[in-house]
Amino acid sequence: MLSDIGSLALSLVAMWFTARPPSPRKTYGFYRFEILAALLNGLLLFVIAGFISYEAYKRFFEPSTVASGTMMLIATIGLLEKSPAHLF
């Protein structure tokens, strides 16, 4: 979720920059900022995917213990919440 918010914020900043009018020094305006924002967003997604892959690789050799009691309690609550008896 944080990466989505960051991507949206970067897009908003890029839109704000590209809306600025061209100047004598920057004849194309700031349209290249959109390209740089997209490049940064893509690079960050690759970094995040690499981190997730690294963490998954580590868990193959050192699996964490599952809190089965808590998991079963939450699953039971979710199952009861979605039971067909509530539909009638």
Overall geometry comes to: elongated
The major sheet is characterized as: none
> How confident is the prediction overall: mean pLDDT?
85
**Low-confidence parts:** none
Radius of gyration: 23 Å
Report the count of strand segments: 0
Q: Give the % helix.
A: 55-70%
**What is the count of DSSP helices, taking H or I runs of 4+ residues?**
3
Query: H/E series, N to C?
Result: HHH
What count of structural domains? Answer: 1
Strand content: under 5%
Distance between the termini: 35 Å
Secondary structure category:
mainly alpha
Q: Any overview of this molecule?
A:
The protein is mostly helical. The protein has one domain. Helices cover 69% and strands 0% of the residues. Helix 1 runs antiparallel to helix 2. The chain is elongated. The mean pLDDT is 85.
What does this entry show, briefly?
69% of the residues lie in helices and 0% in strands.
